[in-house]
Write a structure and sequence with these properties.
Distance between the termini: 44 Å
Strand order of the largest sheet: 3-4-8-9
Order of helices and strands: HHEEHHHHHHEEEEEEEEH
Structural class: alpha+beta
Oligomer: single chain
Largest sheet: 4 strands, mixed
Number of strands: 10
Shape: globular
Helix content: 25-40%
Number of helices: 9
Radius of gyration: 20 Å
């Protein structure tokens, strides 16, 4: 539908919209009951929330089903569902805390489980290497694209750098990082056509944070601060400080150190993403190793 709209093909746009309405009605009849999923697997929750199937008053109930489906911290999605998992948890479901639990879990299936077993790429089977060192070669790729989508969430979820489809090429973009004291800190950057977009934050155990971000020249950003306040920003480098859960304007504070005043200095994990030009599995594993090494 969106591609047809972009191309000005109104006939195709109408046809695709009709197909979607028919498919949506079928899905709702087959899989929803009383505004909830009859069988709330991680994949069904993620795709139902992401693809516009729910009515607005049904979102909260399915989000709670999603939370329950992720309670063991293990990844139970396959090729399609894993692509949606972390991003939908942290956005449509508003469950960034659960997304972090999935990311940081060392259980199997899980990203850090493979890292703890020496993975240097993203495996299709998270238990591809057994405890006694035997490789499972049947039905397994040792460089799996869907599971490697975790790297995208390190940028767009943890770092909060998200493109604006209405203004391609990062002429305008969004900055809305998901902070979590369990990670402690993050430092990511992306080379856009207009220059470096950067997002660097620390978050102490008591929720106090400091976030420094850069909007490159000839571009603008819609910024949502960790406390939920929103504002538009012109080019420049800014620092916001505050405390999670407390309101306030998204206005820059005086730039300062990486550690918010008060409380202990958090454990900081630097995700060195500039070393990897593509969203590839090698880069994903390097970032995951940083998470695992930090304990």
């Amino acid at each position: 539908i969106e591609w047809a709209k972009l191309l000005g093909d109104s006939a195709s746009e109408a046809a695709y919209a009709a197909d979607f309405a028919e498919w949506r009605a079928y899905f709702r009849g087959a899989y929803l009951s009383g505004g909830k999923l009859a069988d709330p697997s991680q994949r069904r929750c993620a795709m139902t929330l992401r693809l516009g199937i729910l009515e607005p008053d049904e979102v909260a109930a399915v989000a709670e089903q999603f939370r329950a489906a992720c309670a063991d911290g293990k990844i139970h999605t396959g090729y399609v569902g894993t692509i949606f998992l972390l991003d939908t948890l942290s956005n449509e479901a508003d469950l960034a805390d659960v997304a972090y639990e999935m990311l940081l879990s060392e259980a199997c299936p899980g990203w850090l489980h493979a890292v703890n077993y020496g993975a240097t790429t993203v495996w299709e089977n998270y238990d591809a290497l057994t405890a006694n060192g035997i490789l499972k070669n049947e039905m397994n790729s040792y460089n799996n694209n869907p599971n490697g989508v975790v790297l995208d969430w390190l940028y767009s979820g943890i770092g909060g750098i998200r493109d604006d489809p209405a203004k391609p090429g990062y002429k305008h973009f969004f900055l809305r990082p998901k902070l979590d004291a369990r990670l402690g800190g993050c430092d990511v950057s992306f080379e856009s056509p207009y220059g470096t977009i950067a997002s660097k934050w620390t978050c102490a155990a008591d929720g106090r944070y400091s976030w420094t971000f850069t909007v490159p020249v000839n571009s603008t950003a819609s910024v949502t601060a960790p406390n939920g306040a929103a504002a538009e920003y012109d080019p420049g480098t800014y620092t916001l400080t505050g405390k999670l859960g407390e309101g306030g304007a998204a206005e820059p504070e005086t730039p300062g150190g990486d550690t918010p005043e008060g409380g202990d200095s958090p454990k900081k994990i630097i995700l060195d993403m500039d070393s990897y030009s593509d969203f590839d599995d090698v880069g994903a594993l390097a970032c995951l190793h940083a998470l695992a090494d930090a304990g």
